[in-house]
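As promised in the previous annual report, we have extended the structural survey to additional targets. Below is the entry for GNAT family N-acetyltransferase.
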Amino acid sequence: MLASLRWGIKLSAPEFTIVDSLAEVDPAAWQALAGDNPTLSHTFLEALHATGCASAATGWSPRFLLMHRDDTLCGALPLYLKTHSRGEYVFDHSWADAFHRHGIPYYPKLLSAVPFTPVTGSRLLALTPADRALLARAALQVARQLETSSLHILFPEEADKQALQAEGYLLREGVQFHWENHGYADLDAFLATMKMEKRKKLRQDRRRVRDAGIDFTHLAGAAISDEALRFFYSCYVSTYEAHYSTPYLSLAFFQRLLADTPDSLMIVLAHRAGTPVAAALNLVGGNVMYGRYWGTTEFVSGLHFETCYVQSIEYCIRHRIDRFEGGAQGVHKMSRGLVPTPTWSAHWIADARFADAIGDFLEQETAAMNDYIDELSEHVPFKDTQK
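The corresponding structure token record, generated without further manual editing, is:
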């Protein structure tokens, strides 16, 4: 039985409450803590919930932890009770299986994450290190009171990672591939930093796309029409269908984002003779662009790389955006200039026996991950001066 939808817990001070809907939270107060990461905005999270994408029916039951002093919101932590591990991008299926084999339930578990979004950002939404520490401790108390098997905080930023480690959470390392803008004047200036054979291969791939008659348009904010958004969504759905899967997000979710926060969206539209053939949707905020979703109506050699990565990098250079995060996984992204970048998650396991075993596993996994990142870093596509 899940806990009630709203209740309070008291530490020494301030006051902590749990709410099951962001509709109960003042958007301005939330944004004062969440900052400019578009995936943490009140609008983004509420759109996930209001459209039913992240809801109890889909296995995501919101349990947002709020911290108040004198009726002023001074801290928050997005939390969900999860009945599965889908849509997280930090894989704990082997942990769940171990619990099951020993006759111990793993679900529901408690999770802090942005649903379906492997983007690093603040999870302990607070303005001071002391308040981040209070949130990290309070989350453990929530997990104990809800009698969950575990608590998982995914893709926390560095300040959160340090606070969580100080409170005894187990850390797990992962890797993504990001591009950094070093003040390039244009795309050619960026390509000039690459090794000759890598630059030549990238240009050959671009030429194949052009020879197929493909041109590109960048649509941002108010320039994104409902027609363009609907075409993107049909492509997004086709990507899942090609893998015999069902998309996590609905057209209503994207339409709500376009209506409420249009400046957070950018679409790369590929077309031939005016007819769209592929699209990629990126999120933008805080001078960072986040590559998220893509799809196509036909196969064209090199089209995926060009639409998702090269066009996005070119857009970042033109608009002086500092960083492009290419999303989860994908060593293939390195050939387009995205470099291996560590990501993190933090974990608390209620059962001490499993906590010890998982802690030992994470020590070995982290050492292996560090070796893997070091090896990848030896093969970045840049000249030695750019490593």
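The chain has two domains: 7-176+341-377, 182-321. The domain at 7-176+341-377 is CATH 3.40.630.30 (Aminopeptidase). These points will be discussed at the next consortium meeting with the crystallography subgroup.
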